[in-house]
């Protein structure tokens, strides 16, 4: 630990630059694709506001287990198929991927197409399964 402190003291410019880049990266990731939801928040939104779950994983992954009543539109086809969700514009949309890392791009696409309430599931389907919430095959 002493070596880190010594490095930061001797090279404070690098430490400040690193902190700034890290802060900007975190800020950018947070803004990308709207807010993230925990599994508990997603469950409440699905049950109380009839939220639509959009799973952006490839079809084969989707078939191994997905959230009940979710719509599968793979991320690779999302730009072409996003219009399929137009009938759900007035409902909250929860975008789900495998680990919570790639849902942001699809959520951003929906936001640019006029969907007002688009959110991402934090941790993706892995977090959902980890919380022992139901999946269907």
From TrEMBL:
Residues 47-137 form the Rhodanese domain. Pfam families: Rhodanese. CDD domains: RHOD. SUPFAM superfamilies: Rhodanese/Cell cycle control phosphatase (SSF52821). Gene3D superfamilies: Rhodanese-like domain. This is Sulfurtransferase. It comes from Pokkaliibacter plantistimulans. The lineage of its organism: Bacteria, Pseudomonadati, Pseudomonadota, Gammaproteobacteria, Oceanospirillales.
């Amino acid at each position: 630990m002493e070596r880190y402190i010594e490095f930061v003291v001797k090279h404070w410019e690098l430490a400040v630059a690193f902190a700034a880049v890290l802060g900007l990266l975190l800020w950018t990731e947070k803004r990308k694709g709207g807010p993230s939801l925990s599994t508990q928040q997603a469950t409440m939104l699905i049950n109380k506001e009839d939220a639509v779950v959009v799973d952006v994983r490839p079809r084969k992954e989707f078939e191994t287990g997905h959230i009940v009543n979710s719509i599968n539109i793979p991320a690779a086809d999302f730009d072409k198929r996003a219009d399929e969700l137009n009938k759900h514009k007035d409902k909250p949309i929860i975008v789900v991927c495998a680990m919570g890392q790639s849902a942001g791009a699809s959520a951003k696409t929906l936001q640019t197409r006029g969907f007002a309430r688009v959110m991402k599931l934090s941790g993706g389907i892995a977090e959902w399964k980890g919380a022992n919430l139901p999946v269907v095959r």
